[in-house]
């Protein structure tokens, strides 16, 4: 048997194992470089949009435990030169969420529809109701959140400068709770800070994270919030970029929420999010690819972002590409793994992490193995409809 006959099978296997991770590697390179570079100076506003009244929406499903604190955090925000109103959407609640929200000073919209359950349905219901009133802009904040005092004024400022949609920094409040929470916090800094900063550096649409985002009245009238998957924020963002609209990054303000405290709650939350992401990959990859091939180059980055898997799975793909004894694909895999390391270190640096985060990285292999244990749950979540499953957030809560 000739040398070429021995090499060809390994070369083919190496290429086949390297290809699934290639879009994600290109995207990581683009965003890591953009995130490390100094931010661009803001462009001079070419128009001033009259944004006055703002509604801050809080979708809530059985959130009696903490809804009053969230409303209080929002009502403490600086109103700027125009007012804002806090509106809680009590969606299919079986507890005292609505009453507690009213007592805390929020307007409450109650919704009951056992067949159409989910955050996307709740937001669509609220937007359709409030668009009948003279609100110029809307901000969405989760029911387990505390916010920066300048949240309303900063998002209003960007809307007045012409932003159609905005996403602010979204950070974890309790990364020190456990080793797994700290690792999740590192991934949070990468996904919710470094990557948004990188996209904004290249003037790309930064994405929606489901918490701490804003939309103008004009945007919602042209693109109704008809997103009903378990990752409705990602679904709606794909619709926005497909329609030619960009989400800008509000780097000077942010929202904070707790990560789940228990292993079971964390596993359930990750399975829902990542299962929903795989659903979006299946649904949207053919759409974006067809439009890219027809000449819409602005959709190349959203397609690459869609194909970038969560870092744990991206690392597993790169490790698989190391296995065949074929030099070029092994070199690619090693460079890809080095890029992941640089990306994580940059996220810690840009996201404000510290030396404890660096120490926590030593346990990352065990975190990756843990992610493998929830693959079946991820698969189920990628097939199911958008049921709203509330995440257990503290050590005293019992599972539903």
From TrEMBL:
The chain crosses the membrane at residues 6-31, 306-326, 332-351. InterPro entries: Nucleotide-diphossugar_trans (IPR029044). This is Glycosyl transferase family 2. Pfam families: Glyco_tranf_2_3. One of its GO terms (molecular function) is glycosyltransferase activity. CDD domains: EpsO_like (cd06438). It comes from the Bacteria. The keyword Glycosyltransferase applies. Belongs to the glycosyltransferase 2 family. Keywords: Glycosyltransferase, Membrane, Transferase, Transmembrane, Transmembrane helix.
